[in-house]
Amino acid sequence: MANLTSPPPQPEFTGNVLFYSKPEPLSREAHARIGLKRLDKPFGFAATANVVPLTVSEFPAAGLSYPIIFAGERRQPLAVMGISQNTNLFVDAEGAFQVGAYIPAYIRRYPFVLASDQTRGQLVVCIDRAASMLGEDYDLGFFDEKGEPTEYTNGCIQFCNDFETEGRRTESFVALLRQLDLFETRQATFTPAGPDGAPAEPQTIAEFYAVSEEKLKALPTEKLRELVDNGAVAQIYAHLMSLIGWDSLMAVAMARAPAVGAANAN
Questions:
Q1: Residue range 12-21: average pLDDT?
Q2: In 3-state terms, what secondary structure has residue 17?
């Protein structure tokens, strides 16, 4: 459970966190006069993120909008939101999120985040002071007249705590998949049309880890039963079904490419 504490001495935080360029421990002393401004299009900070971390509980909902992959040594689950770096196909330049698309919790918690404080050995509630929606002209304050966290702040802190809990569940889920040796390497490919309209050489868009359905089916019956009972099978198949989304993601990217090229030429 994270705590809201005063910052002195200044904590030493570790690691870089996507979206957060200026994290500061939330405190009465530093942030009593600022808050969050409600924006109609608040997601500009995510416009250059082509992948966003997911928790395992989000797989069924997120899989309806994005391919869900696993990446890196940690096999981090990610929602793929674009096929090229610095391009999110679901957030426009003005910060509007595509209507009907699932918004990952990682994005929804911004500008709040929990950071590891090496000095105190605990998680500390932080805000990204560089967030465009923060300032003295606010709709939702962080602290009330008595210096106590507002209902809005407490709700955000609870959301961050819940996200941290889901993160630990996700780590356990990934550890189970690794223990059962269910991962395999896959590629997402795209076959463009040549000058004559015939299919050209396939191009690799991405390499990633996914669950092998063949390995899953080959598990002993008792292991499969365990995965069914603990709900892992449902999450695995949400991931596998989501991979169909690569085709639509590439189609959107290709459809927008001529428009981008034309705009750059003007």
A1: 71
A2: coil
